[in-house]
Amino acid sequence: MRAALLDAATQLIEAQTDDKVSLRACARLAGVSHAAPAHYFPTRAALISAVLAHAFDKLTEAMIAARDAAGDDPFDRLKGTGRAYVAFGLAHPALYTMMFRPTYLQVPDGEMAEAGGRCGAVLGEAVAATPRPGGLTVAAGMAMAWTTVHGFVGLVSNGLVLLDEDPMTTAERILEQQRTAFSG
Length: 184
What we know:
InterPro entries: Homeodomain-like_sf (IPR009057), HTH-type_TetR-like_transc_reg (IPR050109), HTH_TetR (IPR001647), MT1864/Rv1816-like_C (IPR025996), Tet_transcr_reg_TetR-rel_C_sf (IPR036271). The chain is mostly helical.
């Protein structure tokens, strides 16, 4: 039932707005009694935190799968990680937007924060595994890689960038442009 409630909340977020997510609305969509969610989530905030933690875990899984499928070249692995990040964000814009709103964290060491930390670690590991010529530190490389993918998703999702091709094609071109910064 917990999984059904998380799925219902995710559907509400992606179909409407986060303010439409309530324990009662999730129960209705999941086809359970309105009291059932309280057994798993004592508050709306706990439900939202669990949904977002699950979303971070799904993003992490996608990034790891793409990284591992990219072969042995460190930059190709980083690029695969970035490609998966962009694909997830573009496929789930409302959920993605909520994932990065600090207002949805209950406590800094909560379930969502831990899932977000695991997700960030995948990108950090991919950056650390690449050569970074010109004195680019791991921290600076992380900032550059994350700014690229996060900024691209935000701009495209909000309609602030008009593209003349599929967004993933553009993302692929942009990611490839970083090869010189992450290759020895």
